[in-house]
Structure formats: structure tokens, C-alpha cells
Amino acid sequence: MAGGTQDYLGSRFDQAFTQPNSAAVDGRMKAFYLFAALVGAIAPYAVYFGYLVYVPGSSGALSLAWGNPIAAATLTDFTISCLVFWPFLIAESRKLAIRHWWLFIPANIFIGLSFALPAFLYIRERRMANVAG
Known about the structure:
The protein is mainly α. Helices cover 82% and strands 0% of the residues. It has one domain.
């Protein structure tokens, strides 16, 4: 009896997490990634330019990034996230034969991870749909 219950629960777990995605779910995720990339490109610069208006001449911006433990922890977290993103980007791009994958690295550096990651995930979803279809 215990084996039957375990098999039932195992199969229910497998069904819940391994069902193939429908086209509607794929489309919603692509739309979400595209929206997140747009917000991720605009929001950080809006904050940064707001800072420039408040404090003209951002010569102290980098020192402020490390200026207190909370800011330093946030910047450390961001840096580690970027360093994790790049190998993921390269591996997924090779696996799915995504061309021009390298453009996401300068996008990450000059725009930010909040743009580069969802933009890559959008391209990745499109590529997976093309490969599957």
C-alpha cells in the first residue's frame, strides 16, 4: 500500500512539474520577458538620471555604490548575478544555436542585468518555439 501511495504522489508531482507548456503559456512568458526587458532598460536609468538632477556631476556615484553595507551588499549580489548570467547565456546560446548571443554581455554591462536577462529569456523562448515548431 505504501508503494502505491508513493507511486501515486510521485506521478502527481511529475505531472505538476513536467507537463509540456501550451502555446498560450509560452506566449504569455514571451510577452512578460519583453515587458520586463523594457522596464529593466528604462527604470534604472530613470533613477540614475533623477540622481543626476538632484546631484549634478555624478563623480561620487561609484563611491556611493560602496558607501554603506546595504549598498555594498546589493552591488555584490548584482555582480554575482551577472557572473552567473554570462555562463548561462553562453551555454543556452550554444545549445539552442542562438546567433549574436554576445550582444547580451555589453547590454548587461552598459544597460544592466534588469534588461539583458529578460531580453535574453525572450529570445530564448522564441528560439525554443522555433526549434519545437
